[in-house]
Amino acid sequence: MTAQDPGARPDWIAVDWGTSHLRVWPMRGGTPLTRLQSDRGMGQLSPDTFEATLVSLLGDWLAGIENRLPVLVCGMAGARQGWREAPYAAVPCTPPVTGVPVETVDPRLAVTILPGLSQTQPADVMRGEETQIGGFLRGTPGFDGVICLPGTHTKWAHVSAQEVVSFRTFMTGELFALLSKQSVLRFSMGEGWDDAAFGDAVGDAMARPATLAADLFGLRAATLLEGLSPGAAKARLSGLLIGVELAGARPYWLGQEIVILGEDGMAGAYRDALVAQGAQVRCVPVDDMTLAGLIAAREKT
Amino acid sequence: MTAQDPGARPDWIAVDWGTSHLRVWPMRGGTPLTRLQSDRGMGQLSPDTFEATLVSLLGDWLAGIENRLPVLVCGMAGARQGWREAPYAAVPCTPPVTGVPVETVDPRLAVTILPGLSQTQPADVMRGEETQIGGFLRGTPGFDGVICLPGTHTKWAHVSAQEVVSFRTFMTGELFALLSKQSVLRFSMGEGWDDAAFGDAVGDAMARPATLAADLFGLRAATLLEGLSPGAAKARLSGLLIGVELAGARPYWLGQEIVILGEDGMAGAYRDALVAQGAQVRCVPVDDMTLAGLIAAREKT
Description:
Largest sheet of chain A: 7 strands, mixed
Mean pLDDT of chain A: 95
Distance between the termini of chain A: 27 Å
CATH superfamily of the largest domain in chain A: 2-keto-3-deoxy-galactonokinase, C-terminal domain
Number of strands of chain A: 15
Radius of gyration of chain A: 21 Å
Low-confidence stretches of chain A: none
CATH class of the largest domain in chain A: Alpha Beta
Shape of chain A: elongated
Oligomer: homodimer
CATH architecture of the largest domain in chain A: 2-Layer Sandwich
Number of domains of chain A: 2
Structural class of chain A: alpha/beta
Helix content of chain A: 25-40%
């Protein structure tokens, strides 16, 4: 199947444009014809270079297009420093929310950028994850519970009656990256993993979240004094950070049905920590969710 | 007064050799003849370059020296990657602790490196701060209470009967540096300060330490949604981190006489936060304390 085959011509384009990645699906109804990707994320583009970047990546998929082709974009391309700002929609609301049109020079494109979500009290924002949530809800319309999206900035969203009622963002992933790569703890880290060290650290941190900054330095001391292994140190660092987060996010997950969007190592760590707390939790692949959310947005138009 | 004047010849040398600095005092008894300094810290030296670095910085101050001149060194020069490892002394003990001799090529030097302190449960280490504590105790021999040494790795030490009984290290300063300069929060930070924002954040974090990672991201959200000023964001970041630390260090400071070794902005922030908690606290200049601790070590030999 190629773009030259008229039967394979897209009738709309789905775009996930994050800080460090760009993924594009030429679509025919609810079916992707292919997936194109690039490392030209929003972080390295100025507002006037988005359109040319997209047209270049689409290439032949625009051949023969005569009327403006709907292009739905989610992610950081809608941030203030992105292609064009798509102001946040305030919760409670049902994602995906109607987007903001962007004028293009190329007459073959009709671009719309989906907004992120915001919350006033406590102040919080998301941009991109709301589309994943919308994708999950498209497949599980009756869901009532909590969705956890592990990542650099892990999101916890309370969902009821198709709406995101409230959400909270924890910088746990970014803290892990900074501490394991840039702090004094980098000298203690290495390959490997230790499930027991992870589990113990989750428990320690949930019991005494206030001593986090001391328990962190304790990793370095344990390396120097006790020869703590690099893999155990890494697992313990992850466990301390996730444990403090679970203590802080308890109002979100306690007694709730929890879905973790993700299947990678980080999602597995959250799952293991929650299961150890007796929580009802399942992991769902996140890769399809962004596309499903873009399809849900297309279906709404 | 110059080194060429025989009356000004040092009879020993005091050295503070940290990761990123080197300070050297040619001494006559308890009196420094001058202070020499360099940025050639332990972090940029290999074991075989320490001696030449010291001799070069001393220069003419070694002229006319015939017998081996005692040189007392404290700080990271005694770490495993330093000049020579001076193994930690376990608490409880009275700093400064007897040092470890280092052989030199230069026949005019008799170098001794002072050890740091270690603690088994919870695992913890210090290297350099024990000399500052020893210096403070030289001037305040009857002190019974808690010494707080704010820094990249803030130390809380419980002191009684001239001994360090226990101590705990919090990575608060390093977290502040990483978050304010390298995380997504750097886009929210800037010049200025806001005492009220600092105080509120200390209170918030002491009340709910477990939501630290969410309150941190909340700074970014407040910038985007509410136009939080860069100075208030910086003060609030500092307040959140110090507040969580004070909640975790409560067993150290509650009901104790507290001395903060330091007078800079960070020491002032700790003082303000502790005073708001009704604690008895005073700040003492830290600059002299390292030299006083080295003099105390010299007096013990």
